[in-house]
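Annex B. Sample input.
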Amino acid sequence: MPFVTKNPAHYLKALAEDSSEALHVGLFFSRSISEQQAADLIKLGKAIQQSKRIIRCLWLRFRDGDESICAALQAFGDELICVATIQSLVVEGKVGPTEIKCLAGFFRNNKLRGLQLRRTDIDASASPVLMPLFSGSSTLKVIDLSQNSKLGDVFVQDMLAALLEGDATIETLNIGECDIDAIEDDNEIHRISGSGVELIAGYVSRCKFGK
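Annex B, continued. Sample output.
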C-alpha cells in the first residue's frame, strides 16, 4: 500500500533537494482540513511546481469529509495547473465529481502517463472535467477505472469518443470493474450495459495500442 499523509509539509524537504530521484507523493483527505493543512497544501503545490524532481505518482486518497476538503483541494489544484513533472495520478476512495472539478486546471495542462480512479463515486457528470485530458494528451498510456460503481454508459461513451479524437496511445485500459457484492444499495450501481461493452470493443478494434 502507498504511504499517504494528512501532513502536506512532509514532502517539502524532499522537493527542495537537488536530486534526480523520482518521488511518490501521497495525500489523505478526510473529516476536515485545518487552516494550517490548507496553507501547507498550497506550499506543497508551489514546491511541486518549482521542483525539478519527477513525481512518479501523486496519490490522493479520500474518506468522508466536510466542505473544507474541496476548498483546500481547489487551492492545491490551482497550484498544479502548469505542472508537467507528475507522471501518474491516482484518485481513490470517497470522491465524486465535485472533488474532480477542483483539479480541472491540472487535467487541462499536464504530461500524465497514467490515470487511476479507484473505488470512487465518479459518474458521467465528471466527463466535462476529464474529457480535456482524454482528448488533449499525447502522453497518456494507462487508464485504470477499477471498482467504480457509477460510471455507466454515458461516461464510457464520452471517454472513448474523446480518446479517439486525441493523440494518446493507450497501452492499458481497464474500465468499470466494480465490486458489486460489496454495495448494499443496488440503486447506487450504474452498470455498463451490453451497448457500453460494444463501445469498448469498438474502441479497442479502432485504436492503435502502444507496443
